Known about the structure:
The protein is α/β, with parallel strands linked by helices.
Amino acid sequence: MGKGRKGVLAAGILLAAAGCAPAGPEYRISPDALTWRPGWIAVLPVILAGGAIPSSASLPEGLVKPKPEEAARNISEALLASCAARSQVSVRAVAFTGSASGSRAEKATGQYMDSRMIDPTLSAKVGADTGAEALMVIAVLRYGPEVEGGGVQSIKQGANTRVGASQMSISTSVARAVTWFNAQFRCALVRVSDGAVLWDASVRKRQKRVTLMNVTQESVLQEAVEEIVDTFPWAKPRPAEPR
């Protein structure tokens, strides 16, 4: 983004902890976010990109592919819970009962999904619908478990053994599934008065399922949420972990 109505966003990267996930999240913060603070922030309904839910043909027992509405709800609830604990500004989800206001909110999030910008006229209208001075939009790019190679694979294993004077071959089949958990999404804070994007952040977590280390879809989502909230302009530091 260049100078002008949208402002200048300062870029930064927080390095992720060592592991399978790439470095992140990536974020940009406008200088306005350092001098201006909204009374409260309205969180718009989450939107999912096409193909956001991995299309694994099969998953190991106990894992279920999330439905789009479930993925949207899980991410929204996790973000709201983290903001409730750490944000110095009230962040609240809003429900749209009217078709016109709901359509405007969906259009605003769709614009952000496509261009990472929102038309200022539209943001002002959504602001009037919600009564908030700023909007938080959330776009989900990837969420849910997937199996490496597309599904659970059956692998044949063979061994030779001798029984008495006879040589025998024994063949068995075992199921193999390397499962990865995904949580990839991006968020933005938009000022309703002029459509300025004050904060824009994206995070991608992709971690291998490790039962002994208790790596789950929920733990990967929570880690992604905390990392992205770390970059929020008015976030308090994470509480110290007990030793």
